[in-house]
Amino acid sequence: MERFIRTLNEALHNRIDNERDKHNIPCTDYICAIMLTYNNELKHYSHGFTPADAAKRENSMDAIMNLEMKAKKNKKYANLNVNDTVRINKKKETIDKERKGV
Questions:
Q1: Do residues 33 and 19 lie in contact, with contact meaning Cβ atoms separated by under 8 Å?
Q2: For the chain, which residues make up each domain, given as ranges?
Q3: Does the pLDDT at position 36 exceed 70?
Q4: Cα–Cα distance, 31 to 69 (Å, whole number)
Q5: Which class for 30: exposed (0-12), middle (13-18), buried (19 or more C-beta within 10 A)?
Q6: Considering Cα of 97, then 43, then 17, then 1, what sign does the dihedral take?
Q7: Could you please report the per-residue DSSP string of 5-54?
Q8: Of the N and C termini of the chain, which has fewer Cβ atoms inside 10 Å?
Q9: Would you give the DSSP letter of residue 57?
Q10: What is this structure's pTM?
Q11: Whole-angstrom Cα distance, residue 15 to residue 91?
Q12: 54: exposed, middle or buried (C-beta count within 10 Å: 0-12, 13-18, 19+)?
């Protein structure tokens, strides 16, 4: 769900940025067009279908198989020794934003 929200947010900001000088349209007017594009035109990396196509009965097994094939299972980590250089992934703080205003 979080990925969907980020995708929706990015699409909304892109539309607003591209149309800002042309029209004074409220951002809520873009949501319907963005959702139609998302559901019917954007293929998802994880299963290779648009949401509308993935929901069709004839594609459901292919979508499930694609998800299973791309699922990461039994992740293996390298052995570490004292003084090895490692990368630390930090979780984003709740107050951090994806997009910062200018």
A1: no
A2: 2-70
A3: yes
A4: 32
A5: middle
A6: negative
A7: HHHHHHHHHHHHHHHTTT----GGGGHHHHHHHHHHT---TTTSS-HHHH
A8: C
A9: G
A10: 0.54
A11: 29
A12: buried
